[in-house]
Amino acid sequence: MNRSDAAVGAELATKEAQLLEAGEMLAYRHRDYCGMGLRYAEGRFICGEVDD
């Protein structure tokens, strides 16, 4: 990874963290098992299974 890749990664991660802290969730939802998702709750970032 070069320096420009790291800068874009940090910027993207910061924006995503801000959205999660604002109550958004990163997940794909459909019927039954939906895979893994990411959210922010109780002062921490949580990665876990997503079900309908």
Q: Oligomeric status of the shown chains?
A: single chain
Distance between the termini: 37 Å
Report the sheet-strand fraction. 25-35%
Output the helix-strand order: HEE
| Cα Rg | 13 Å
Mean pLDDT: 87
Low-pLDDT parts are none
Strand order of the largest sheet: 1-2
Total beta-strand segments: 2
Describe the main β-sheet briefly. 2 strands, antiparallel
- Number of domains as seen in the coordinates: 1
Helix content: 25-40%
| Secondary-structure class | alpha+beta
Task: Using the alpha-carbon principal axes, give the shape.
Answer: extended
Number of helices: 1
Describe the protein's architecture and organization.
With 52 residues, the protein is of the alpha+beta class. The chain is 37% helix and 33% strand. The protein has one domain (3-51). It is built from one helix and two strands. A two-stranded antiparallel ribbon has the order 1-2. A hairpin with a 2-residue loop joins strand 1 (33-41) and strand 2. The protein is extended and about 40 Å long. It starts with a helix and ends with a strand. The mean pLDDT is 87.
